[in-house]
Structures are given as structure tokens and as C-alpha cells.
């Protein structure tokens, strides 16, 4: 049996989509005879009738419908392969790996990424979530082109774009503490109470703990959303990004215990990448795009927590 061609599959799919040979020929910019011959050849190769020609409109047979669905998938794959080859021939990346860290206001940053990649549909966004030192590990191991997180700005391997300041507030649910809330709450008082901490997703570097009292009872979670739920349910206390809890602080569902011994913290959210490696043209365009968007984003983030 001779191998079928993509041209023949294109003709078959077009005939099914358009309901006739003449309409398919017009869509494909081919002659009626060429489309008819392509379908006849396919049917001879497979030894089955693919089309029911008895009605006003041509319709696929049961076998033809099955092949039609597979042909659609194959043609999409062929188109993607062609685009990838074109991208590579032009020196453009076929995909970029971006890591969003636990400190990110996700909807804002996902909106930025969505708008950028809509303008560059031939480069696929491969998006990952990591927590604590996980984003650094991916970046330094060459597994990420860009991270949206905090970084060690003293590391000469890295460059960054400032995106805003993220305050973290130590909070509890009403009734969680067995003593009154004052500005003088100490780590000793909190030591016996369950603290909820974020689990470090780094696999091969020494885990780091931030704002941890180190008491006998501790629960670890994968992200700040789960951490917030634990704290709201009165199961633990912990630090949360202020942008996530403004409403709960206003209506009293969460209470700040910030004071002399628990001042809270502020982290600088950045777009970070390796300074010591070459970046492709789409990665460079993304970097420049983030640079142009950074002032407005920084103002929006900072005002949200002012």
C-alpha cells in the first residue's frame, strides 16, 4: 500500500468540513479534479469508502468519520512541527520556561504573560509554580528562563527587574491565641502554638525556613492559599502576603499580631534571570516587555498594600 500524503488528508478534511468537492477545492485553492483524485486515492489505499456521496452534501461514512478525527489531529501536529521548524530556522525559541514563585500576585502576573504570549503564539509558555527557594534552584540549574519571585541581589550571576514590594504579615484567626493580642507578643509565647509554614519545593539545595519560630507543632503546606485556609480555620498561625488578606483584616476574620518581636517582613518581587547566559530573541522580547510594564505593575502592587 502506498503511503498517503498530507495533501490528501488536507483534501479529505476540507471535503468533510465544506460538504462537497467544489467548496473544498475553493478553500484549498485547488482544482475540483485534484481534490476528487486525492479522495479517490485515499479510498483505494485504505480499501474503504470514506465518503457517502448519495445526498446533496457529501458526508463521511462511519469509517470516514473516524479517520477524519485522526486526520485533524495529525494535520494539527504537522502544522505545529512546521511552525517549530520555522521558529528554529529563524533562531527563535519554540518554548520558554517561566517559574512563578509563592510571593506573586498571580492574576496580575498571569495577565501580563497571557498578553505577551498571545502576541507570540509560536513560542509556547511552559509555566511552573515553585515555593521558597524552588524558583532559584530552577533558575540556577538552567531549568528556567525567567522567574517571578525574590532573589539574592548580591548574586552576580543574576539580573532583575523590580516589580513591587510584598509585605508579609503575621496573622491569627480570632480566638486562636490563649492570651490577648498586644504589640509585645514574644516568640516564647507563640512557641507552643501550631505554626503553618510554606514547604520549600527545592529538591537539591538546603531547605530554608523564613519567619519560623520552631515550636514543637508545625504544619507545612504547598502554597499561600492553603496556608491562608489553615489560618482562617483557626488551625495555625503564620505569615501571609498582605495583598491576599486585605479583606480579611478589614472585616476581622484575620487579626495581625505584628509588633516589636514580630515586625512582619517585606520582600522585593522581581523578574529574575541569569546574567551569565545567552538569551534567545523571544526571551529578550519578554524581558523588554516586562521592563516596560514594571512601573505600572509596581505602582499597582504597592498601592494595593499601602
UniProtKB/TrEMBL annotation:
<dbReference type="GO" id="GO:0003700">
    <property type="term" value="F:DNA-binding transcription factor activity"/>
</dbReference>
<comment type="similarity">
    <text>Belongs to the LysR transcriptional regulatory family.</text>
</comment>
<dbReference type="GO" id="GO:0000976">
    <property type="term" value="F:transcription cis-regulatory region binding"/>
</dbReference>
<dbReference type="InterPro" id="IPR036390">
    <property type="entry name" value="WH_DNA-bd_sf"/>
</dbReference>
<feature type="domain" description="HTH lysR-type">
    <location>
        <begin position="4"/>
        <end position="61"/>
    </location>
</feature>
<dbReference type="InterPro" id="IPR036388">
    <property type="entry name" value="WH-like_DNA-bd_sf"/>
</dbReference>
<dbReference type="Pfam" id="PF00126">
    <property type="entry name" value="HTH_1"/>
</dbReference>
<keyword id="KW-0804">Transcription</keyword>
<dbReference type="Pfam" id="PF03466">
    <property type="entry name" value="LysR_substrate"/>
</dbReference>
<keyword id="KW-0805">Transcription regulation</keyword>
<dbReference type="InterPro" id="IPR005119">
    <property type="entry name" value="LysR_subst-bd"/>
</dbReference>
<dbReference type="InterPro" id="IPR000847">
    <property type="entry name" value="LysR_HTH_N"/>
</dbReference>
<keyword id="KW-0238">DNA-binding</keyword>
<protein>
    <submittedName>
        <fullName>LysR family transcriptional regulator</fullName>
    </submittedName>
</protein>
Amino acid at each position: 500500500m502506498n503511503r498517503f500524503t498530507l495533501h490528501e488528508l488536507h483534501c479529505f478534511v476540507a471535503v468533510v468540513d465544506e460538504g462537497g468537492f467544489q467548496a473544498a477545492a475553493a478553500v484549498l485553492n485547488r482544482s475540483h479534479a485534484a481534490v476528487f483524485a486525492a479522495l479517490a486515492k485515499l479510498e483505494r489505499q485504505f480499501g474503504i469508502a470514506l465518503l457517502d456521496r448519495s445526498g446533496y452534501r457529501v458526508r463521511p461514512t462511519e469509517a470516514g468519520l473516524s479517520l477524519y478525527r485522526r486526520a485533524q489531529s495529525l494535520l494539527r501536529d504537522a502544522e505545529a512541527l512546521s511552525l517549530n521548524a520555522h521558529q528554529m530556522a529563524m533562531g527563535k525559541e519554540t518554548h520558554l520556561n517561566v517559574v512563578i514563585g509563592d510571593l506573586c500576585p498571580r492574576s496580575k502576573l498571569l495577565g501580563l504573560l497571557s498578553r505577551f504570549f498571545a502576541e507570540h503564539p509560536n513560542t509556547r509558555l511552559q509555566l511552573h509554580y515553585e515555593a521558597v527557594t524552588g524558583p532559584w534552584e530552577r533558575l540556577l540549574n538552567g531549568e528556567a528562563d525567567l522567574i517571578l519571585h525574590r532573589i539574592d541581589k548580591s548574586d552576580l550571576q543574576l539580573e532583575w527587574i523590580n516589580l513591587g514590594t510584598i509585605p508579609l504579615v503575621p496573622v491569627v484567626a480570632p480566638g486562636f491565641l490563649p492570651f490577648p493580642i498586644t504589640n509585645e507578643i514574644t516568640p516564647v509565647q507563640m512557641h507552643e502554638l501550631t505554626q503553618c509554614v510554606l514547604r520549600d519545593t527545592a529538591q537539591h539545595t538546603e531547605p530554608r525556613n523564613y519567619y519560623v519560630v520552631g515550636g514543637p507543632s508545625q504544619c507545612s503546606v504547598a502554597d499561600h492559599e492553603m496556608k491562608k485556609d489553615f489560618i482562617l480555620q483557626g488551625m495555625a498561625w503564620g505569615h501571609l502576603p498582605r495583598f491576599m488578606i486585605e479583606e480579611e483584616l478589614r472585616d476581622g476574620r484575620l487579626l495581625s499580631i505584628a509588633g516589636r518581636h514580630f515586625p512582619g517582613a517585606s520582600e522585593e518581587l522581581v523578574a529574575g534571570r541569569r546574567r551569565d547566559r545567552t538569551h534567545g530573541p523571544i526571551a529578550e522580547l519578554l524581558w523588554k516587555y516586562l521592563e516596560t510594564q514594571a512601573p505600572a505593575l509596581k505602582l499597582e502592587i504597592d498601592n494595593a498594600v499601602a
